Amino acid sequence: MLFKTRLKSIGVVAAIAATLLSSGVSADSGDKILESSCVECHDLKGAGPENLTELWALKGPNLSYAGNKYKQAWLEQWLAAPTRIRPTGMFYGNHIKPGTDEDVIKQESLVKHMALSASDAKVVAAALMHRKAKSELITPGAYKPGTISLRMGELVFDKFRGCLGCHQIEPGYGGASGPEVYTLGNRLQEDYIISFIQDPQAWSPLTFMPNRPLKDKDLQKLVHYFRALAKEKF
Ligand code: HEC
Ligand code: HEC
Q1: N or C of the chain: less Cβ packing under 10 Å?
Q2: Is a pLDDT exceeding 80 seen at residue 21?
Q3: Which residues lie with the beta carbon below 6 Å from any ligand 2 atom?
């Protein structure tokens, strides 16, 4: 009994020490936080998987080109209050099991993303904006702002190009193996979206998102659609 109480009080001391340590972290620069808390799951240097074993072992999306990909305001918000973007987490194959009709997501195997304090989220988002691997794949101004109705946009996304098989256009509607697209407009830079759809493998080697030759006209329509979707309330 005495032994158990002793253990408990050691636990309390450890918890206090951990709190002190983590409150010390807020003063650190965003890069320090990235190196200490994020490298375990995220590639920050840009190599990318070289074979299927490495692809399968990925524990989080590549952040080495975060500055070419995300909108800073979204990063800041999401890091403080993360939500699931990929219904099947990472790596996809580790979180599904065969069902009778279609694959079933193993919800119990999905982990909740760590959340940062608002001040840490701010410095980390700023540090991520400096990670700019693969800039040569971006054409600044590739996206020309315009509009499309949600109905027309959905036609392009689904009927013509089969994108709905892997991506959800609203919670629970669409495939589960790719990231949700109904938040894309807030999340990703428009020129990145154009570049990524044109050549997914250039950004994410071995990704199973198909490389389809799309006309610039259709690429523009897709981005108009993502921007319109992101304004919807689900
Ligand atoms: C235990 C592994 C793990 C750790 C540690 C981790 N992440 Fe993640 N991260 C993930 C996974 C898995 C996802 C995909 C989540 C999803 O889509 O639902 C993700 C997603 C993200 C995203 C959204 C990117 C996208 O396109 O989906 C950002 C930004 C991010 N992490 C930043 C960070 C930062 C910054 C840290 C350190 C403070 C960190 N992560 C620590 C596993 C991790
Ligand atoms: C076979 C499944 C599949 C199909 C079909 C597919 N995608 Fe994807 N898509 C993915 C996966 C998986 C990713 C994540 C790639 C990565 O991060 O490595 C992705 C990522 C994306 C991204 C980047 C999103 C992000 O958060 O990083 C966009 C934009 C996108 N897809 C658009 C499309 C469009 C448009 C189509 C139709 C022309 C399409 N996808 C068809 C599987 C698919």
Answers
A1: N
A2: no
A3: 61, 161-163, 165-167, 177-179, 184, 193, 196-197, 204, 207-210, 212, 222
